[in-house]
Design a protein that fits this description.
185 residues; alpha+beta; elongated
């Protein structure tokens, strides 16, 4: 029973780390990356569809993405969806392909993005701590039922704290890596 609680908590903490990675990918660093456009939705036959389901997104060079819609009539719709997204990008229509140049980032914008990254990391830390809290409540419930002894509960709580510390350290490493990536010129 104790092992189940611990493995469940570890699995949930791992998902928090994966969610943070996904959030960090969305935050632009000035370098072209195909996942920058992943959350852009394109109206496609009456439904909002992710851009990667209606077009091929490629990296043309360090600062330029290429977007090739699978259906030629969709070119202007995809262009409008990218332009209207919250990314501040202005695609250029070349007939069959959209070139999406990424503007160079200013020092002020980099600092703003670092603040955003820190906020996302703090949210992930809170999620990991909430998982620890839930697991400890489960342990207290087991002790109350008489399923485990006080010593077992205390050892399990220490184990949960070590697990929490491990995942917080992983989150902090991701944060430090992303901050240095953002501040690179």
């Amino acid at each position: 029973m104790l092992q189940m609680i611990k493995s469940d908590a570890e699995e949930r903490m791992q998902k928090s780390i994966e969610a943070l990675k996904a959030e960090f990918i969305k935050i632009r660093t000035g370098r072209a990356h195909t996942s920058l456009l992943d959350h852009v939705m394109v109206p496609y036959y009456g439904n909002d569809t992710p851009i990667n389901q209606v077009a091929n997104v490629t990296v043309l060079d360090n600062r330029t993405l290429g977007v090739t819609p699978w259906e030629k009539p969709m070119l202007s719709t995809v262009e409008k969806a990218i332009r209207d997204s919250d990314l501040g990008l202005n695609p250029t229509n070349l007939g069959t392909v959209l070139r999406v140049p990424l503007p160079p980032m200013t020092e002020e914008r980099r600092r703003d993005l670092v603040k955003v990254v820190r906020h996302e990391a703090e949210n992930a830390r809170v999620a990991v701590r909430n998982i620890r809290r839930d697991a400890i409540q489960d342990l207290k419930g087991l002790k109350k039922d008489g399923s485990i002894s006080e010593d077992d509960e205390r050892r399990a709580e220490e184990s949960m704290q070590k697990l929490t510390d491990k995942y917080i350290a992983l989150l902090d490493k991701q944060l430090a890596d992303k901050e240095t990536e953002l501040m690179e010129v």
